[in-house]
Amino acid sequence: MILAQETTHHIRISKCNKNGLVAIKVDMSKIFDRNIWDFVIAVLKKLNFPDHWLNLVFKCLSSVKYSVLVNGHTSNVLTPSCGVRQGDPLSPILFSICTEALLASLIIAMNNKDIKGVSIARNDPPLTHLLFADDSSFFLNLDLKSISVFVDTLSSYYKDSGQIINNDKSQIFFSPFTPTFAKNRTISTINVKESNGFGKYLGIPLDITINRKQIFVDIIDKIKK
């Protein structure tokens, strides 16, 4: 949370980067409904899970059956081909494991200098991403190569995993004095609407202003209650 606040604040006040900086918050639509089982197993296999474990996980995923009520009558049994049952305790764990595939791709791109993250101080390591469930935040140096490789990496992951970006709930904002052509190019490439900030992340306001006390009043009241 602190990393998210400090990085977004840095982007908001940054004036020294000629290309500009960008923060992107991606919302994934129905993350547990669309997981492709083969992708889950492939990631687990890549992480060197034993075959016995893979078989157990696949059995948990594929043994689910559904019935629905139609005009008061129970339908025939339906067998799903993807996704995880609602309320399944494995859901968040499997999603986190699958996210390792995205992390690996981002790390490779960073090591190859294809993607440049955001450093909030001169000697700080660059930050490119913060991932939590269906809210994922990305922080990039706004050059053409970084954006292009980032979009390709994200698209490849979503295609393989079955995830879909919810463009209506996703947001993007830029550092001050970012060239207009760079903004337009990035927005058209990512297809996410521009905003002035991220609002809340995990229930905590990210858009820190001068009156910090006022921002956290609601949270303090909830804690007191």
Strands, count: 8
Apparent shape? globular
SS summary, helix count: 8
Output mean pLDDT: 80
Q: What is the string of SSEs from the N terminus onward?
A: HEHHEEHEEHEHEEHH
Q: Which structural class fits the helix and strand makeup?
A: alpha+beta
Poorly predicted runs are none
Largest sheet data: 4 strands, antiparallel
Question: What share of the residues lie within helices?
Answer: 40-55%
Beta-strand level of the residues, as a percent range? 5-15%
Query: N- to C-terminal separation?
Result: 23 Å
Strand order of the biggest β-sheet: 4-5-1-6
Determine Rg (CA atoms, Å): 20 Å
Describe the structure.
Residues 1-206 form the Reverse transcriptase domain. This is Reverse transcriptase domain-containing protein. It holds the Pfam family RVT_1. With 225 residues, this protein is an alpha+beta fold. It is built from 8 helices and 8 strands; from the N terminus they run αβααββαββαβαββαα. The strands form 3 sheets. Strands 4-5-1-6 form a 4-stranded antiparallel β-sheet, with helices on one face. Strands 2-3 form a two-stranded antiparallel ribbon. Helix 2 (37-46) packs across helix 4 (91-111), helix 4 (91-111) runs antiparallel to helix 5 (144-161) and helix 5 (144-161) runs parallel beside helix 6. It is globular, with a radius of gyration of 20 Å. The mean pLDDT is 80.
